[in-house]
Fold this protein.
Amino acid sequence: MTRLAIFDCDGTLVDSQANICRAMEACFATYRLDPPPRDAIRRIVGLSLVPAIATLLPDAEADQHAAMAETYKHAFFRMRSDRTLDPEPLFDGIAAAIDALEQSGWLLGVATGKSDRGLAAILDHHGLADRFVTLQTADRHPSKPHPSMLEAAMAQAGALPQNTAMIGDTSFDMAMAVAAGAHPIGVAWGYHDAHELHSAGARHVCMHAAQLPDLLEAM
């Protein structure tokens, strides 16, 4: 039996909110628009860029959303190239949880609204690039909560939905898991509140990463 644990990235594996907010503020400034409040930006973390910007700027046309998504990418890449990114640390206990799950025979994956390039940079930085058997990003899939990322991850790993857990910090992650028939496992250290995760279908919400291995073993 193949057991698959799929992690979201931003807000679940790493705390990247500062850089996401800075890049979004730079994007809006390029268009001479007032930036959204940082609380509003944090709430769209997890969505792919175009729907994220559409949420922040609903009165703009679709072509502007698409153009601003490209501007955001350029702003983030410039910050990375200039080495002005803020630290994007792993959340406390995540490295140990990954070790414990692997030792228990779980396969690991990532499903994220980031691009391939952005995800690769984070995994390389933390020495995690070889720990995941499947990496699903916004480059190849519709935005969460569409189940496409999870369906592709399960197919690649050879796992069934009933043996797959989606671990994430947003209601988008939980709704995606529900749509794919996987187990929705919320985490309380990210960008959506626990009650939102439960409302979106989370069966459990972990308060600390150390709880994840035992929780998944009990699925």
Summary: The mean pLDDT is 96. The longest helix spans residues 62-81. The longest strand covers residues 107-111.
